[in-house]
Amino acid sequence: MLNIHVALIPDGNRRWARERKLLPWIGHQEGAKAFGKILEKAFKMELKYLTLWAASWDNLTKRPKKEVNFLFKVFGENFKKALNDKKLEENEVRVNVLGEWRKILPKETQKTIEKLIDKTKNNQKFFLTFLIGYNGDKEMIDCINKIADLAYNSKTRIKVDENLISKNLWTGFLPPVDLIIRTGSEEDPHNSAGFMMWKTIYSQFYFTKTYFPALTPHEFEKAISNFLSRERRIGK
Predict the structure, then answer these.
(1) What is the mean pLDDT of the chain?
(2) What is the pLDDT of residues 152-170, one digit of tens each?
(3) pLDDT tens-digit map of 43-91
(4) Stated pTM of the model
(5) What is the domain partition of the chain in residue ranges?
(6) What angle do CA 18, 20, 23 make, to 5 degrees?
(7) How close are the terminal C-alpha atoms of the chain, in Å?
């Protein structure tokens, strides 16, 4: 078992489509197909924790309506497939979906996701997490507000420490992220929207030139192999 946490930021879907003279959002459809292959590779590698930032809050609220509706369609179709995918049960995969997706996804897709979460909640071998309607800064603001409410309602002084913060984060149950793979950004390596800021304080980064729809299982494995060969100092 490869007991590490890999977070995947799938950048470059629209650029991939534009270079092929396709509608920009077709890249999202092809990106979903690419992720299916990567997930199979993750199972073969016995990667315990895999997190995919499927869409930020900004992606779903600031982009053209046609593109957002297409994303909703992609989510709906793929979560329906996942609900009936025997591989998730065979591989004992627990699926979680985090972020503010309940505020924005179509009701039918929300129901499908809830069923998938409930169906896989007792699986403990692999942990597959999707971040949808997720911004790291919004997660931290929500965490601070929860702690502020707790302090206001408490009769005694509360101590704010790492455990209290983790308990109030959307991603609190997940272990720290060991490796962040961001595709399509080798020439512009960057983070976005405070991505999992509490869980990535000691993360390693791997940036690819390859856009996400073109990311192969082999390149995904190469990124992880590169990470495993590094010396991690973690403040030492």
Answers:
(1) 96
(2) 999 788 999 999 999 999 9
(3) 999 999 999 999 999 999 999 999 999 999 999 999 999 999 999 999 9
(4) 0.96
(5) 2-134+175-228
(6) 50
(7) 27
Q: Which of 13, 59, 91, 96 is catalytic?
A: 59
Q: Active-site residue 59, yes or no?
A: yes
Reading the block at residue 218, the tokens are 């082999």
Q: Which two tokens stand for residue 2?
A: 């490869």
Q: Which of 11, 78, 91, 135 is catalytic?
A: 11
Per-residue 3-state assignment (H helix, E strand, C coil) for 33-89 = HHHHHHHHHHHHHCEEEEEEEEECHHHHHHCCHHHHHHHHHHHHHHHHHHHCCHHHH
Spatial strand order in the sheet of 179-182: 93-98, 126-132, 47-55, 2-9, 179-182, 204-207
142: annotated active-site residue: no
Q: Please state which CATH class domain 2-134+175-228 belongs to.
A: alpha beta
